[in-house]
């Protein structure tokens, strides 16, 4: 058992940026799951299926500008990294 744990830690990298990025992604995915599953489920139980569909449309519309901003920042990050490689 102890050797299995030691082997697991040998393969883990010490790249803290990668770890931070993974943690951020996991937190965002968890928050979205809570929002859609718990929030949508409660709206469905309390107000019915019509309100749940409307809530899903509203939540999706809320995520569209957020996704566009994230894509914009990713593109800027890619351009900056590419320009630094060419220097």
Would you mind describing this structure in some detail?
- The protein is an all-alpha fold and 87 residues long.
- It has one domain (19-86).
- It has helices spanning 2-11, 16-47, 49-86.
- Helix 2 runs antiparallel to helix 3.
- The longest helix is centred in the last third of the chain and has 38 residues, at 49-86.
- The N and C termini lie far apart (49 Å).
Task: Record keyword descriptors for this entry.
87 residues; mainly alpha; 3 helices; elongated
Question: What's the quick description here?
Answer:
With 87 residues, the protein is mainly alpha-helical.
Number of strands: 0
Provide mean pLDDT, rounded.
Answer: 87
First-residue to last-residue Cα separation = 49 Å
> How many helical stretches?
3
Shape field:
elongated
> What is the percentage of strand-forming residues?
under 5%
What are the segments in which pLDDT stays under 50 over at least 5 consecutive residues? none
Q: What number of structural domains do the residues give?
A: 1
Q: H/E order of the elements?
A: HHH
Q: What structural class do helix, strand and pairing data support? A: mainly alpha
| Portion of residues within helices | over 70%
Radius of gyration computed on alpha carbons: 20 Å
Characterize the largest beta sheet: strand count, sense, and whether it forms a barrel: none
Q: How would you summarize the topology of this molecule?
A:
Blueprint (H helix, E strand, L loop, with lengths): L1 H10 L4 H32 L1 H38 L1
């Amino acid at each position: 058992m102890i050797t299995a744990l030691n082997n697991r830690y040998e393969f883990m990298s010490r790249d803290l940026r990668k770890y931070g990025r993974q943690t951020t992604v996991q937190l965002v995915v968890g928050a979205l799951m809570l929002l859609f599953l718990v929030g949508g489920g409660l709206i469905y139980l309390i107000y019915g299926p019509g309100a749940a569909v409307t809530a899903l449309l509203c939540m999706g519309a809320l995520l569209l500008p957020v996704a566009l901003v994230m894509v914009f920042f990713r593109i800027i990050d890619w351009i900056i990294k590419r320009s630094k490689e060419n220097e």
